[in-house]
Design brief:
Low-confidence stretches: none
Number of strands: 5
Distance between the termini: 20 Å
Strand order of the largest sheet: 1-5-4-3-2
Length: about 130
Amino acid sequence: MLYVVETKKDVETAARDLEEAVKRNKFGVLHVHDLQKTLKEKGVDFPNACKILEVCNPQRAIQVLSVNMGVNMALPCRISVYRDGGKTKLGMIRPTALLALFPASAGLKPVAEEVERETIRMIGEAQ
């Protein structure tokens, strides 16, 4: 269900490299959430750096939404770069696992598999 890898890079570098990989692979970065910063602004000191990138390929999104609008609840894809146990990790929930939450969308499995291959490639490029 999860895909997680470790990198020797710090969170900032890995997140920047991931943004570049996303763009090279014809996806867009819709937003970057800096979880540690947001929590600090809310008065909570959270020790672990965590950046969550919301990424999307518009052509894939329209394919999915044209078949089942309800799948919008699983979009955009989120890829996290974070510190945990003293290590930097990149991870995501596999798109095929998310699609399984929508039983009426079994026909979209090839699209989810392709997005999964592409996002794994992006993570590998940033690793």
